[in-house]
Structure formats: structure tokens, C-alpha cells
Specification:
The protein is of the alpha+beta class and 176 residues long. The protein has six helices and seven strands, in the order αβαααββββββαα. Helices cover 37% and strands 36% of the residues. The longest helix has 21 residues.
Length: 176
């Protein structure tokens, strides 16, 4: 009886691990919003790390996070590092590409609670009487990350944070 139960548990665990191993290692999450403002009016809010932290939702998750800014104040090479005992963990963001009024691409490196690297991008596309702001992140998802995704819907969790941040940016820029 006990051996049968152990064999059953081993089969279930093996099945779960095989399923996780077959999941894609690449992940991408994207959200966008239309804002009644020009790319020129929006760009200052995305090219400067301190200004972007005014609308990005991460700071709300841990008001006691320690932020350190280094390098240029904005644009290529600007660095923001954080250390949080709360939800944010520890990591840094380095601007690796900045095209005026069009795009900011950032290399994100997390060291705690787990090591991970991603590239985030915020792009601005003019549209009639405003701009479509697109926020995305992509990177590799480790085996442990894919296992974690079995229990947490990262698309919904991270995407929901993107939506919250984009709404805050919209409100800030449109003044509503």
C-alpha cells in the first residue's frame, strides 16, 4: 500500500515536472493605452527614471524601498537600483536605448528574490489626437520561473501592474 502511494506520488511529480519542462522558456507581457497627448509631452515621463517612478506602480508595493539613481539623469546609461524587503526585491534597471519621443528600452536585472533578466520597452506611437503608449517586457523564463507560473498567472499579475501604471500616466498627463 505505502509503496503504491509512493509510486503514484513519484508519477504525479514526474508528470508535473515534464509539463513544466515543455513550457516555453521565452515570455512576453504587453499592455497599451491611448493617451490624449503628443509623444513630445509623454517622453519626459518615460526617459527619466525618477519621473517614471512617479507613475509606475512598483513604488506603491513598498513605500520603504531604497532607490539609488546613478549615471546620467535620463536617457542612455541612466541607472536606477532598488533594494526592498517587500515585494520589489533587489535589482537594477539600465536604459540601453532611448529614441527621442519614440522609445525607451531598459535592461532589468533582478537578484532577489530570484535571479532573472528581462528587457522592458515603452514605445510611443502617434495616433490622431494622441499617442498609443505600449509597455512590454520580455525575457527568458527559467525552469523555476515556469514552475512558479503553474501557480501564479504572471500575464495577469504583471499585466495588471502595467495597466495600473499606464492609467496613472494617462491621468497624470491628461490632468484628469
Amino acid at each position: 500500500m505505502m509503496i503504491g502511494l509512493l509510486i503514484f506520488l513519484a508519477l504525479v511529480i514526474s508528470g508535473i515536472l515534464a509539463y513544466v519542462a515543455k513550457q516555453p522558456s521565452e515570455m512576453q507581457i504587453t499592455r497599451e493605452i491611448f493617451i490624449k497627448a503628443s509623444p513630445q509631452a509623454l517622453f519626459p515621463h518615460i526617459k527619466n527614471s525618477k519621473k517614471s517612478n512617479e507613475w509606475m506602480p512598483w513604488m506603491e508595493s513598498d513605500p520603504n524601498v531604497k532607490m539609488i539613481y546613478s549615471g546620467p539623469e535620463e536617457g542612455l546609461g541612466a541607472i536606477s537600483s532598488w533594494d526592498s524587503i517587500g515585494k520589489m526585491g533587489t535589482g537594477k534597471a539600465v536604459v540601453i536605448e532611448s529614441l527621442a519621443n519614440k522609445l525607451v528600452r531598459t535592461q532589468l536585472t533582478y537578484t532577489r528574490p530570484m535571479e532573472m533578466s528581462q528587457v522592458a520597452e515603452i514605445s510611443l506611437t502617434p495616433s490622431n489626437d494622441g499617442t498609443v503608449v505600449r509597455w512590454s517586457v520580455k525575457g527568458k523564463n527559467s525552469f523555476v520561473g515556469r514552475l512558479f507560473c503553474l501557480f501564479m498567472n504572471m500575464e495577469k499579475m504583471v499585466g495588471g501592474q502595467f495597466e495600473k501604471g499606464l492609467m496613472k500616466l494617462k491621468s497624470k498627463v491628461e490632468g484628469s
